[in-house]
Amino acid sequence: MKQLVKVTRGGQVTIPAEMRRRTGIDVGGYVEIRLEEGRLVLVPKQLIDKEQTWFWTRAWQAAEREAKDDLHAGRAKTFDTLDELIADLDADETED
Question: Could you please report the per-residue DSSP string of 3-57?
Fold first, then answer.
């Protein structure tokens, strides 16, 4: 997809609506701009609140994938009551 756009005062360009829609760029959103082999490349980016950065660490995301895999493979237990959960945890401790 190509489209010719004009550079305005201050170096501003307008990203065409269809391109914004297809790339998920919203008003107020951010893009990273890079120079690659004489071309400008725009990459949509999202800012993460500092208090949420732990969730996006490699270690946490690996644990998320592991948990998801466990759920899909049926390696999970469900409990109807908190007492059942605690009893199961206590049983696991006595088995160790």
Answer: -----BGGGB-PPPHHHHHHHT--TT-EEEEEEETTEEEEEEE----GGGGGGGS
